């Protein structure tokens, strides 16, 4: 009699969105609610983790800037090991797995080991922040280009951001809080106007969200004086200064 083929689990790379559980896709919510093994990083909101069923094995691989509790290679190996042991793994990530989420690296290692992978997109922080802070990323009067960049990356000064920011464009910077000053200097050195509007959105789509506005030249000061902490996004471009829609919204709500 031939030996039964042992089952290989699937790794689901699932986007958890920016925080609010209401911003999960139905597919993500279903996977979390039925998970037996759930591997998550530090950005995933506790309210989402609380949706996992009793008995679900929860593994945190929380990574914080400059303090990696688990190296990326070890995370990849963990996913492969669990799947080869026959477990379906819900790998939950903040935002979208394929936007600064290292989902590509995890998927590649899984495929290389013969482990099937499915990707469930999530609302990336840029979309979450734009919606909650009332900053349209594009607007027919203000921006027809939007770019996402990582502010904390190898050799910030060597990064070529030419043409990504300026009139008619929106630049969204992930992981840029620690280097906000250097980012502003870099962009101004590349010719951006010092009075270009900027917005900093901390904890987007969470109850403790803060939105701070200013001009490019003062970006570092805004971040420092308000003690902005990760997770936060920096949005640079005319859209960040459009008539402060948050205020208009408040005025309208008070009038109703
Ligand atoms: N995959 C994620 C990004 C991970 S990189 C996504 O698609 O959103 C981590 C960075 O994302 C943080 O440093 C921060 O810049 C941004 N970020 C994630 N969640 C955020 C939130 N709720 N509010 C503001 N920025 C957030």
Fill in the keyword field for this structure.
single chain; 256 residues; alpha/beta; Cobalt-precorrin-4 Transmethylase, domain 1; binds S-adenosyl-L-homocysteine
Characterization of the model:
The protein has helices at 26-33, 46-49, 72-84, 103-112, 125-133, 180-189, 219-225, 245-255, and strands at 11-15, 37-40, 57-60, 63-64, 67-68, 89-93, 117-120, 143-150, 168-174, 197-202, 210-215, 232-236. The chain is of the alpha/beta class. Helix 3 packs across helix 4 (103-112) and helix 6 packs antiparallel against helix 7 (219-225). It is globular and about 60 Å long. The mean pLDDT is 92. It contains 8 helices and 12 strands. Strands 3-2-6-1-7 form a 5-stranded parallel β-sheet, with helices on both faces. A 5-stranded mixed β-sheet has the order 8-9-12-10-11, sandwiched between helices. Strands 4-5 form a two-stranded antiparallel ribbon. Helix 2 (46-49) links the parallel strand 2 and strand 3 (57-60). The chain is 28% helix and 23% strand. It folds into 2 domains: 11-123, Tetrapyrrole methylase, N-terminal domain (Cobalt-precorrin-4 Transmethylase, domain 1); 126-246, Methyltransferase, Cobalt-precorrin-4 Transmethylase, Domain 2, CATH 3.30.950. The relative contact order is 0.14. Bound molecules: S-adenosyl-L-homocysteine. S-adenosyl-L-homocysteine binds next to helix 5 and strand 12.
């Amino acid at each position: 009699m031939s030996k039964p083929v042992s089952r290989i689990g699937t790794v689901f790379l699932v986007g958890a969105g920016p925080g609010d559980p209401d911003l999960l896709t139905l597919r993500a919510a279903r996977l979390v609610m039925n998970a037996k093994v759930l591997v998550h990083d530090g950005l995933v909101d506790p309210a989402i983790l609380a949706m996992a069923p009793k008995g679900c094995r929860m593994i945190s691989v929380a990574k914080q800037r400059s303090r990696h509790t688990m190296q990326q290679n070890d995370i990849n190996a963990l996913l492969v090991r669990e799947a080869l042991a026959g477990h379906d793994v819900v790998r939950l990530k903040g935002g979208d797995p394929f936007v600064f989420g290292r989902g590509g690296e995890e998927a590649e290692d899984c495929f290389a080991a013969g482990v099937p992978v499915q990707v469930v997109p999530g609302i990336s922080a840029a979309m979450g922040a734009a919606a909650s802070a009332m900053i349209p990323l594009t607007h027919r009067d203000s921006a027809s280009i939007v770019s996402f960049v990582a502010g904390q990356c190898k050799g910030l000064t060597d990064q070529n951001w030419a043409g990504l920011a300026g009139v008619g464009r929106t630049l969204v910077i992930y992981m840029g809080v620690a280097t906000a000053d250097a980012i502003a200097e870099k962009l101004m050195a590349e010719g951006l106007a010092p009075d270009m509007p900027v917005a900093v959105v901390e904890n987007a789509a969470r109850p403790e969200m803060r939105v701070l506005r200013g001009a490019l030249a003062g970006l570092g000061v805004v971040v420092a004086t308000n003690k902005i902490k990760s997770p936060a996004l920096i949005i640079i471009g005319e859209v960040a200064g459009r008539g402060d829609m948050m205020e208009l919204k408040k005025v309208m709500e008070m009038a109703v």
